[in-house]
Automatic annotation (TrEMBL):
Name recorded for this polypeptide: CWF19-like protein 1
Stretches the record annotates as Disordered: 249-272, 291-317
Organism from which the protein derives: Rhabdornis inornatus
GO MF entry, a single one: RNA lariat debranching enzyme activator activity
Residues covered by the Cwf19-like protein C-terminal domain: 435-527
Pfam family, one: CwfJ_C_2
GO BP term, example: mRNA splicing, via spliceosome
Gene: Cwf19l1
Gene3D superfamilies, A to Z: HIT-like
Compositional bias annotation for Polar residues: 307-317
Length: 531
């Protein structure tokens, strides 16, 4: 159990009094980590009582060094030393390793604006040497905690607002580079007299790199500030070295893209080159700074294309298609709703009588190929089916297999709410995928399939009505009935005999009766009847 604190500014009685009060109420904490200015311009009288032992810090306290010339004299040894009983100066830069295995990387001072760097500043060389000391460690995965006084530049990219602080101008680019390389689980900073707890960000590229732990950046205000901004942060942390790897890399639902990834890409490029090159590349993730985690716009904008935003036209099937609505092969008695761009049909040989398909009227192979208008109507059908199934005490599971198929079929299967949770469903899919050596990865809730798969890429994709998603890029053979097999398994619907649709096909009169019943029940939720 740790405490982290912002700028103390010499208010030692105030911070230690607050710590005593917290410990009296909540129990003992192991250490206090102080970032920002520990000493202020009027610290001497109060500090003398602690330096001489007249007063004692109630908890082991670790502080960063000077951020200005005026307070340099408080730090006699640049490599770190005990300043008073229970108060330790960590040093100019380095790594503190606790007996529990906890690793704390630290960098004192502010970024140097001149060379040679003043004693209260750090240079690019300081950052490079700190990085090298850790990155050269075998099997380095990151540090538990990073302490810096300045904020990292651009930390607000893809994230929640930092209020009055402009994160594109404030802070240090060198600290951003350090944080990107060291991948701390917690990063604390101060100096801006503001409290900001950023949404956690990931340290890997989804579907391109092995999942890694997330980072939480927390900036703390100054002690005793009159605005009552938070300056003390309590947290519990188990050392990375002691954690189960699967537990360590769990991704919270509000995780965002790494704010420094763009900075690292920009480094060798001019801004002109960047705008020309990145416009033409495939955009895998939203700029969450613009979208604030909301759902993807349905008007075709922001799709990451550099071409003029023309509507995609459906391709022509290479042969007879069972799902193009105009095709004579379509079993139209199974159709239960027709929109402008999509239609809804009962699945032939469905897992249940209300197992349905969302299908584009025109010929599109996969979700990735859909135009914005068709995608918008797919979203409408999802929302209508969610409301419909929830009214019947069910949640839906949707999956798509873009492999050995020529027309998009979004399979939508309802599962009783009291039968299993969304976590049970995800676990069933992931467990059975692992048994068959299929890598099924969770993708961010605010992302959609078009952000992680390019046109023509074979894939399998699962979506819950909560917005949670799983994705597998198919690189070789793939079991055609995998989605049905998981849902029909004992872990979920417990109807393994229905895994193969050919064993479930009903006679036409029965199918017609099921379609009539579904149309009647779905009618109050069917937007196509109102639009």
């Amino acid at each position: 159990r740790r405490l982290a604190c912002g700028d103390v500014e010499g208010r030692l009685d105030a911070i230690f009094g607050r710590v005593r009060a917290i410990q009296a109420k909540s129990g003992r904490f192991d250490m206090l980590l102080c970032v920002g200015n520990f000493f202020g311009s009027t610290s001497e009288a109060e500090w003398a009582e602690y330096r001489t032992g007249a007063k004692k810090a109630p908890i082991p306290t670790y502080v960063l060094g000077a951020n200005n010339h005026d307070t340099l004299s408080y730090f006699p040894d640049v490599s770190g030393c005990e300043l008073a009983e229970n108060i330790t100066y960590l040093g100019r830069r380095g790594v503190y390793s606790g007996c529990s295995g906890l690793q704390i990387a630290y960098l004192s001072g502010t970024e140097a604006q001149q060379q040679p760097a003043p004693a209260h500043s750090f240079s690019a060389k300081d950052v490079a040497e700190l990085k090298m000391s850790l990155l050269s460690t075998p099997n380095f995965r990151g540090v538990d905690i990073l302490l810096t006084s300045p904020w990292p530049r651009d930390v607000g990219t893809f994230a929640n607002s930092a209020g009055e602080i402009d994160t594109k101008k404030c802070g240090s680019k060198l600290v951003s580079d350090l944080a990107a390389s060291l991948k701390p689980r917690y990063h604390f900073a101060a100096l801006e007299k503001a409290y900001y707890e950023r949404l956690p960000y990931r340290n890997h590229m989804v579907l391109q790199e092995t999942p890694q732990h997330v980072t939480r950046f927390i900036a703390l205000a100054d002690v005793g500030n009159t605005s009552k901004k938070k300056y003390l942060y309590a947290f519990s942390i188990v050392p990375m070295s002691s954690m189960d790897p699967a537990e360590l890399v769990k991704q919270p639902q509000d995780v965002t893209e790494n704010p420094y990834r763009k900075l690292k890409k920009e480094a060798p490029k001019s801004k002109a080159m960047l705008s020309a090159e990145e416009e033409s590349t495939c955009q895998f993730f939203f700029d969450l700074n613009k979208h604030q985690g909301k759902k993807r716009p349905s008007d075709g904008k922001e799709r990451g294309d550099s071409q003029p935003k023309q509507a995609k036209k459906p391709s022509q099937p290479t042969g007879p298609c069972w799902f193009c609505l105009a095709s004579p092969e379509v079993e139209k008695h199974l159709v239960v709703s027709i929109g402008t761009h999509c239609y809804l049909a009962l699945a032939k040989g469905g897992l249940s009588p209300d197992h349905v398909l969302i299908l584009p009227i025109g010929h599109y192979q996969s979700v990735v190929d859909l135009s914005s208008e068709v995608l918008e109507e797919v979203t409408k059908y999802k929302a209508a089916l969610k409301e419909f199934f929830r009214s019947k005490g069910k949640r839906y599971v949707l999956f798509e297999r873009n492999y050995r198929s020529q027309h998009l079929q979004l399979q939508v299967i309802p599962v009783p709410l009291d039968l299993c949770t969304s976590e049970d469903i995800k676990e069933a899919f992931i467990t059975q995928a692992q048994e068959q050596h299929i890598e099924l990865l969770e993708i961010p809730e605010h992302s959609d399939i078009a952000q992680v798969a390019q046109p023509g890429m074979p894939y399998f994709y699962v979506e819950l009505d909560t917005g949670e998603k799983l994705f597998h890029r198919i690189r070789g053979r793939f079991p055609l009935q995998f989605g049905r097999e998981v849902l029909a398994s004992e872990a979920l619907l417990a109807q393994p005999q229905r895994a193969d649709w050919r064993q479930c096909a009903a006679q036409r009169p029965e199918e017609e009766a099921q379609a009539r019943a579904f149309r009647r029940e779905f009618e109050p939720f069917d937007f196509s009847l109102r639009d």
